[in-house]
Amino acid sequence: MQIKVNLDKNTSYNVYINELEKLEFDTKVVILTNEVVAKLHLETLKKKIHAKELYIIQIKDGEEYKNLQTIEKILNQMFEYKLDRKSLLISFGGGVVSDMGGFVASIYQRGIKFINIPTTLLACVDASVGGKTGINNNFGKNLIGSFYQPSAVYCQSEFLKTLNQRELSAGMAEFIKMAVIFDENILDFLENLDENAFLTAKLDDVNLEHIIKKSIELKANIVSQDEKESGVRMLLNYGHTFAHVIENQTNYKTYLHGEAVAIGMHMANTLAYNLGMLSKNECERIENLLKKFKLPTFYKIYNINEFYEAFFLDKKTHHYKINFILPCGLGKACIKNDITKEDVLNALRVFS
Ligand code: GLY
């Protein structure tokens, strides 16, 4: 199965689901991965990649390593391997690997091609598609980066079978996000899904493939309309404005990205409820779904003013106006940049 991300002639690409048999390249290829994925799946992948010369770069696992120091290490190794402008980089890992792989590919000798082979559910359903690349710094999450599209994405269920419950839950957060902002039918589907089978990676391939396919179809459609996030793509940031502050405040060590997004969605819903955009019943339905998939919905805010000020470092803030993405009913979301500080603080107070 393949889904096209329709951009212009030179940058459109396909996302292949469970179609990776063998890839042949007449160039040098470097696989960027982390220590955990390497141990579990690198040998399997290497058998599928036939390149003129094949190199491996292994980084540490975790969002706390998604920074400039790691980028410099990766670049140094690429220079040591004498990769040239025709070389290809394969990001083989979760969102952290694909964010960093895409970023180094975009700057190495002014840009080389890269492909994504995601190994987490979160990367399959969201991060590996759409060309957002980047790293964190002291000021915030993903504040350094580029829009740089992969040449192809290969999602393989076989690489997801070793994920633990937390990783699967984190991926599900991004899928729940898609449901809330675009498609209420997905909420029904998820409410009927056997969460125990899912969270122990025993979900049958048909359902897993359905989740990945549905999410990528929605995302490909949005990215095709608005590659660089000047309009409708902003909706995909639902929950993220809050999540990025949480991740930054906890030094990227406490929560997986999807977990922070789950809390962020609940914070956004609280604000939407206070503003009359979401009913109590709708709010509870989303919260119950997050809980069903063992996602957190609460983060203790010690200083609501400090939390509020941190929004102004986010990329989604323009001219001191914060763009909040809030659900307006189920399956629909709106961009709101006129919410008063008082209303935001009132919502944050629920978490203090
Ligand atoms: N993760 C949101 C986006 O790619 O736009």
UniProtKB/TrEMBL annotation:
Q: Give the reactions, separated by semicolons, that this protein catalyses.
A: 7-phospho-2-dehydro-3-deoxy-D-arabino-heptonate = 3-dehydroquinate + phosphate
Membrane-crossing residue ranges in chain numbering: 88-108
Q: Name one GO molecular function term.
A: 3-dehydroquinate synthase activity
Pfam families in alphabetical order: DHQ_synthase, DHQS_C
User: What SUPFAM superfamilies does the record tag this protein with?
Assistant: Dehydroquinate synthase-like
Summarize where Zn(2+) binds, as residue positions: E174, H240, H257
Q: Which cofactor does it need?
A: Co(2+); Zn(2+); NAD(+)
EC code(s) of this entry: 4.2.3.4
Chain sites annotated for binding NAD(+): 61-66, 95-99, 119-120, 132, 141, 159-162
The protein's predominant localisation is cytoplasm
Pathway info: Metabolic intermediate biosynthesis; chorismate biosynthesis; chorismate from D-erythrose 4-phosphate and phosphoenolpyruvate: step 2/7
Give residue ranges for domain 3-dehydroquinate synthase N-terminal. 57-169
Q: Which residues form the 3-dehydroquinate synthase C-terminal domain?
A: 171-317
**Keywords of this protein's UniProt record, alphabetized?**
Amino-acid biosynthesis, Aromatic amino acid biosynthesis, Cobalt, Cytoplasm, Lyase, Membrane, Metal-binding, NAD, Nucleotide-binding, Transmembrane, Transmembrane helix, Zinc
Q: Would the keyword Heme be found if you checked this record's keyword annotation? A: no
State the free-text cofactor note.
Binds 1 divalent metal cation per subunit. Can use either Co(2+) or Zn(2+).
At the top of the EC hierarchy, this enzyme's class is: lyase
Location(s) in or outside the cell: Cytoplasm
Function statement? Catalyzes the conversion of 3-deoxy-D-arabino-heptulosonate 7-phosphate (DAHP) to dehydroquinate (DHQ).
Q: Which PANTHER family match?
A: 3-DEHYDROQUINATE SYNTHASE, 3-DEHYDROQUINATE SYNTHASE, CHLOROPLASTIC
Q: Which family does it belong to?
A: Belongs to the sugar phosphate cyclases superfamily. Dehydroquinate synthase family.
Tell me what this protein is called: 3-dehydroquinate synthase
The gene designation is aroB
